[in-house]
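Protocol check, entry for the methods section draft. Step 1: assemble the input record (protein sequence plus ligand SMILES). Step 2: submit for complex structure prediction. Step 3: store the structure tokens unaltered in the notebook. Ligand used here: copper (II) ion. Step 1 record:
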Amino acid sequence: MVLRTLAAILGVVLIADTAASLPALRNLGEGGQAASGIRGRLDIRKLDKPIERRPDVATAGAAGPRDVPDLRRGVVYLETAPRSAFDERDPGHVVMDQRNERFVPHVLAVMIGTVVDFPNSDLTYHNVFSLSRAKRFDLGRYAAGKSKSVRMDRTGVVRVFCDIHSHMNAFILVFNHPFFDVTDVEGHFELPSLPAGTYTVVGWYEGEARITRSVVVPANGWAEVDLVVP
Ligand SMILES: [Cu+2]
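Step 3, stored output:
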């Protein structure tokens, strides 16, 4: 009982601390479980290269940086996770929009079974397809305002393209557990609600980088890890 009280107090302190430093915090309030897990930063600065800007009548003269942060996001995930660490539930739908001849977001991470909706928010036609082993599909051409969907039923990386616009591409990472996070634009990630134990954490960026690290999660608290792409 004393231990539990102590844990609760510690949990509150950690949550307060976390809330102050990480505005994008999610999944709190689930019985305080989020007070233990892995968090840190995926540092891809060594890979940083100028974003290629395609000449485009629609965006000519417009500042590019609006789109750039989206191209700086990596994914951090557990290589494997104990099945006992999470509940099986319907993963539902997520959206990958087609807007200004881009897929938005550029990187999606989902659980197996998730249905990805691909609405066309442009005035032109698009033709979304993938040749990836994890999911091969071709949605055909469809017009503005229409949407088509694909269920992600295998784990792996699904490279998404548009048959009409060769510059359009995106990544969908499919996992068989919920312990993954798309980083924010500064590389921060958080894998909350993890039971104590030793885990292999993977930092992934655009298929260009994949770094792994063994991380020990304490019984109540966060393991901090910086994954620096060499
Ligand atoms: Cu297109």
